[in-house]
User: What shape does this take?
Amino acid sequence: MDKSKAQLVFDKMMATDYCSQWMGIEAVTLSEGHCKIKMTVTKEMLNGFGILHGGIAYAFADSAFAFAANSYGRLSVSVTGSMSFSKSAQEGDILYAEAVALHIGYKTAEFDVNISNGSKEIYYRFRGTVYRKSDNILDL
Amino acid sequence: MDKSKAQLVFDKMMATDYCSQWMGIEAVTLSEGHCKIKMTVTKEMLNGFGILHGGIAYAFADSAFAFAANSYGRLSVSVTGSMSFSKSAQEGDILYAEAVALHIGYKTAEFDVNISNGSKEIYYRFRGTVYRKSDNILDL
Amino acid sequence: MDKSKAQLVFDKMMATDYCSQWMGIEAVTLSEGHCKIKMTVTKEMLNGFGILHGGIAYAFADSAFAFAANSYGRLSVSVTGSMSFSKSAQEGDILYAEAVALHIGYKTAEFDVNISNGSKEIYYRFRGTVYRKSDNILDL
Amino acid sequence: MDKSKAQLVFDKMMATDYCSQWMGIEAVTLSEGHCKIKMTVTKEMLNGFGILHGGIAYAFADSAFAFAANSYGRLSVSVTGSMSFSKSAQEGDILYAEAVALHIGYKTAEFDVNISNGSKEIYYRFRGTVYRKSDNILDL
Assistant: This one.
């Protein structure tokens, strides 16, 4: 079966996304404007309080955000992102980041990314805005 | 000379902050409510566009934020953080994150963290809020 | 029938909330951790581009946020709020702001507020954090 | 003396900005990428706790943001804005909102707006991003 555009974009981005590779990110589901990825919390991701470093939670969400935002083919770059912290993840936790499109405009787009362990409880909430360039990411 | 409280807090947090260790973070200046740290962008920190992953920029800022917020001794945990992206850092760049206190309340506090290469131009801007617990971080 | 606690809190807050009165805010549904209110866009709410001033959209969301956050009885004050703009409202539009609890912690809580004209399309998205005091708002 | 472009843009926007007129906003200083405005807190701006409604603080900042962002001549529209609350203003307080450019990009720009009573203490902090259109606001 032919790969979807969302899958092609993910493959192209992941090939040189050494940071997402370091996080051990794997795709769960990919479609236009939507993305669900997973990773396992490792010792190198912990902060001085023995929990997942907030910045790595952000990085995990930011990767989901980038895959979803670029899934339309239009090259999209982060302008702003924000994160809130409800519950802490621990070493060994398997986390899922799910990105959904809130608004797709001509030049900007907005996404929510929720991070959970697969149950309904949300650990971290991310909301971000991209600027959408004219370039097709698959032509770069 | 005796170490300052800010230095003691930094040392205690860094000892088990495996993520900040992974980022290669070093202290430049530490004082109550203020912190300046540095790191060098490595290949593992890059995203699929060949630039510093936005999440690692956030993580770098978040570490500076945490050191500054805890420097008063009161255990402080992130509630929200946001970041904006003005300029991209490249592999090999030496970056500085400087955290300054905007507002220190009884139960919440707010900080700005600017990331630059040491010149006046800001690459990434972070603003975050902590909740301040009653516990003394040095007694934990 | 006895009024719910959420209704009592709303009534008490609205009695001296001259700004929400100026906006013409009316309750649609009120319950613990949830609130839906409405208003009509007036000429005095427009900005220089002939559309609803972004700050009044924020104020409308902020009122819904405050009613929902205080609906538990614990006095709750805003720490941070953010808003994104997807579609502009015009004079005469009837708008609804619906607040939902994302996370209720011991000392902080987070809410989303979406503003629409009653259809599925969201015009403005608000996300905010409160600090929860020990005081009971109904005892003040 | 000829009016500056920043002054011409302010005059054009204020002429139909009924909301800023309702707030009683007056210009203090206007230049490219910078704006300082003032207003007096009235009873209609208060919330149910007897202090300035957070949304009106946001609206005041948002007006300063809009005047500064449009001062270059390029039509600029809000994408996101966030606000944090350090100190409450009371009825009769004279407030100043000062907008400064953080980053001016080709298609997006970012500004900080601090609100104070003229002393060094900041009551409210706003940070926002605009999308910059190609249209010249003075030609509309």
Summary: Chain B touches chain C at residues 79-80, 82, 107-108, 129, 131 (CB under 8 Å). Chain B has one domain: 5-139. The helical segments of chain B are 5-15, 18-23, 54-70. The two ends of chain B are 24 Å apart (CA to CA).
